[in-house]
Amino acid sequence: MCIRDRVSTQSTGTKRSTNMPPANVVFHKGESAVQDRFGVRASIEDFAARVVRTYFTPQHSAFFSQIPFVSLAARDSAGRVWCSLVTGQKRAGEPPQPASIAPDEHSLHILQPPAAGDRLHGELLPGRPVGVVGVMLHNRRRNRVNGVVSPGEDGEDGAVRIQVVQSFGNCPQYITVRSAVSQTDAPTQPLPVGCTEALSEAEGGLPRALAGVVEASDTFFIGSGYGGNGLDDPTEGMDASHRGGSPGFVQVSDGGTKISFEDRPGNNHYNTLGNLALDPRGGMAFVDWQTGSVLQVSGEIYVEFGSKTVLTMAVEAWSWLPRRMNVVFLPPSDPPTELRIAAISDESHEVRSLYLQPCGKAPLASFRGGQYLGVTVSTKSGDVSRTYSLSCDPSMAFYSHSRASFYRISVRRQGLASAALHQMVVGDVLMAAGAPMGEFVLHPDSRSGRGPTVLIAAGVGVTPVLSMAHELLATQNEERVVLIHAVRDEAHLVFKQELKKMQEDHFGRFHVVLVFSRGGSMEDGVIAGRLDAEMLKTILGNATVRVGDEGVHSYVCGPAGFMGAMSAALEGLGAPEGAIHLETF
Questions:
Q1: DSSP notation for 455-485
Q2: Residue 498 reports pLDDT greater than 90
Q3: What is the dihedral of CA 336, 340, 345, 348, to 10 degrees?
Q4: Sheet strand arrangement including 337-346
């Protein structure tokens, strides 16, 4: 995307670059043409308008302030496109340092600009467009920034300052998981065969040794741009992107003068292909991860559309930068699961539901009502791990004809991680730590209908028991399900419409009782007061459920005090210990 939305700079005091483009345009004509070719233009324009932002979200700010390297795409003074990889400072005995920081929502600082020998050394001048892609290899997160180099202030430390024009996440497909280690703390590995430090830079095709680096790669970075009429054209812009696959997915031919690869489906923006449709100049950067060496290549890239989309670069120039990065990367390991936020719904003023879909083609793991999903959330204080109960219907959450698979987590805003989740938007990506898990699930007696089931929840503790209710109502048995939900008042009630529809669809079988501690009456279907043993006895008596009967199980979720009180009340009503199931929330 090289024709950008306008960036507001009032909050930062940053002067607007004269190279920044007109407002309210997301894609340029090249990208739109490629989207038309693939039949996605209408859908992606609406989607991009919602997920492509002119500023950093807190998550993206935290992301770019943590990653140990970023890839930059820009033009040199001759107009050639190059990709560069820059890293943080080298500090012996310390973890890899960040390559960038985001001091505010409109700025990104590259802490160590491309050094001597790098084709972009000295080329990132004020007013020039630059594309940035950051990848967290250990958890497969990837975000991109397109912007313009801003002037540095007197006394600054030489960092390249980029004014953010567009910020957006990419679904982290084709990313091989690796762990970063400081170059000073890692055993020195030999350079690839034949790739000595005597190799430097040249015009023309690649030597055979460097062609071997390309063909052994499972990752490379590609830069492209729409140059318009040159560097002074206001529609000028640059994109940096990532490509990945199994070693051998990139091929070198014709004596090192051609580099080809199949372009696989991505986010349907078609930024790279759209840029190349209008301006074939492009750059690539390949990495030898175990030595931190970088190969830069520049040339013209041509696209062949057909049953497969193949890109071929005619190599014009290259540079070999041995051991250039201050970090090296350990061999690949099995990745976690990436889930994209497909939709968001507010259940109340403090509870938000996130509908999560897989980024790739692999199906979601199945789950049971009551189980939870572990996720890693990026905050300004770093990555934090949390678990959230799945609130959706296990029987309806998976692919069936036209319905895509999804998980739903419903999160109350009450801490660092939940606050970060509430700030996420459609298109952002969460990292899930494996499949859903947890032992708070329905007993076989409940699933087989040996007796009625009692579900008791306080506040947002309703999320796992709601999923249980869905699972029970999807079974063929006709045993009753009673859900008792205690909340402060209507403002704190969640899933009101969903519960109403479930009652309508299962009239006579599914009973919902709401208890408002701050008000309500039997006339409006709500019991006023605090749910205690006496009230529970009344509710169950009205529902003609005897918790002491064989096959009757009760499931309670809420704060510890609430669960203790409800457990004691159920025991007082004759429920055996093995028929009371608790989940702290």
A1: EEEEGGGHHHHHHHHHHHHTSS----EEEEE
A2: yes
A3: 30
A4: 382-389, 372-379, 429-432, 337-346, 351-358, 407-412
**pTM for this entry:** 0.58
Contact 259, 244 (CB under 8 A): no
3-state secondary structure (DSSP) of residue 375? strand
Give CA–CA dist 524/262, Å, rounded: 62
3-state helix, strand and coil shares in percent for the chain, rounded to the nearest 5:
20, 35, 45
**Structure-token match 């004596």, residue found:** 255
The torsion defined by the Cα of 455, 460, 466 and 468, in degrees rounded to 10, comes to -60
Neighbours of 59 (CB within 10 A): 23
b (16+ CB within 10 A) / e for 248-286: ebbebeeebbbbbbebeebbebbbbbbbbbbbbbbbbbb
Structure-token pair, residue 158: 């030489």
Phi/psi of residue 384, nearest 5 degrees:
-130, 145
User: How far is residue 456's CA from residue 554's CA, in Å, rounded to a whole number?
Assistant: 8
Instruction: Tell me the C-alpha distance between 94 and 97, whole Å.
Output: 8
CA–CA gap between residue 340 and residue 311 (Å, rounded): 28
Looking at residue 187, what DSSP letter applies?
P
Residue from 330, 318, 321 nearest 293 by CA:
321
Over residues 219-275, the pLDDT tens digits come to 999 999 986 544 444 346 899 999 987 788 899 999 999 999 999 877 788 999 999
Half-sphere exposure of 364 (CA within 13 A, CB side): 28
In 307-452, beta strands by DSSP E: 310-321, 327-329, 337-346, 351-358, 372-379, 382-389, 407-412, 429-432
| Residue corresponding to tokens 């505010």 | 104
Dump pLDDT digits (tens) for 432-468.
867 787 778 999 999 888 999 999 999 999 999 999 9
Which residue bears the tokens 């070719």? 37
pLDDT tier at 51, thresholds 50, 70, 90: low
- Whose CA is closest to 284, among 295, 272, 269? 295
Other Cβ atoms less than 10 A from the Cβ of 519: the count is 12
Residue 379 has pLDDT above 90, yes or no: no
DSSP state of 230: S
Give residue 193's pLDDT band: very low, low, confident or very high (50, 70, 90): confident
Find the DSSP H helices in 362-492: 416-422, 444-448, 462-473
Q: Which residues contact 405 (CB under 8 A, 6 or more apart)?
A: 357, 358, 363, 364, 397, 398, 399
Q: Which residues contact 434 (CB under 8 A, 6 or more apart)?
A: 336, 337, 365, 374
Beta bridge partners of 241: 222
Tell me the sheet residues that pair with 82: 74
Tokens 């009753």 correspond to what residue? 480
Cα separation, 391 vs 351, whole angstroms: 12
CB atoms within 10 A of CB 201: 13
CA distance 40 to 273: 14
H or E element at residue 538: helix 533-542
- Cβ neighbours of 434 (radius 10 Å): 11
